[in-house]
Amino acid sequence: MKKLILITGIFIFSTTLLHAQADSKAIQLGVKGGVNSTKITGDDIDDVKARTSFNVGLLAEIPITERFSLQPEVMYSGQGFDVKEIDQDNIFDTNENIEYQLDYIQVPVLLKAYLVKGLSIEAGPQFGFKIHEELDFQPNNDGGDIEINEDDSYVKDFDTGLVLGAAYKFDNGFFVNGRYNMGLTNIFEDNTIFENVDAKNAVWQFGVGFMF
């Protein structure tokens, strides 16, 4: 909670400072959503398959200059990885994939640069707060869920990453975007059986949205 308060305070201060330097272009608010392809990567992670999930959230675009904007977001992001992926060509194997689901509230704070009208690139830090963790033996059906509570979890509650992406915004306010979220910190607690294990979140996101 202290980390969340500190990050929120820094974000509000930074937003106020940058907006004071901006031109008269209005702040825009928006909504967005899309698909995730997510896994964990690292030197100690071998052949982990990606989980397919979704993201949805709110964003604001705060102009700094004619070409540069600050874009803070608050998003739900379904993450994790496939523990086991079934060979669909094997007609005798009727089991489903097994997913390790890690769901976060992600708060990216991005600097957006317009290359030409409508087309922009974006980059910046991202702060993640884990809100749910479970092992799902039937990801395509109801049931098969084993929730992992805080006492039994080996995964940290807080995560940091770097976001790199691009977007195209149409004149009517609709936009499409794609980005890669690269984890910067290990997701496992240091005082567990996963101590010193190099494992970081890695997420591809593709989606659409609308700016009001």
Summary?
Keywords: Signal. The protein has about 210 residues and is mainly β.
Structural overview:
Pfam families: OMP_b-brl_2 (PF13568). It comes from Xanthomarina gelatinilytica. Residues 1-20 form the signal peptide. InterPro entries: Beta-barrel_OMP_2. This is Outer membrane protein beta-barrel domain-containing protein. This protein has an 8-stranded antiparallel beta barrel with strand order 1-2-3-4-5-7-8-9. The longest helix is centred in the first third of the chain and has 19 residues, at 2-20. The two termini are 32 Å apart. The chain has one helix at 2-20, and strands at residues 28-41, 51-63, 68-84, 98-116, 119-136, 145-147, 158-169, 174-183, 200-211. The chain is elongated. It is built from 1 helix and 9 strands, in the order H-E-E-E-E-E-E-E-E-E. It has a single domain (2-211), classed as Porin (Beta Barrel). The model is unreliable at 15-24 and 90-94 (pLDDT under 50). It has 212 residues and is mainly beta. 9% of the residues lie in helices and 56% in strands.
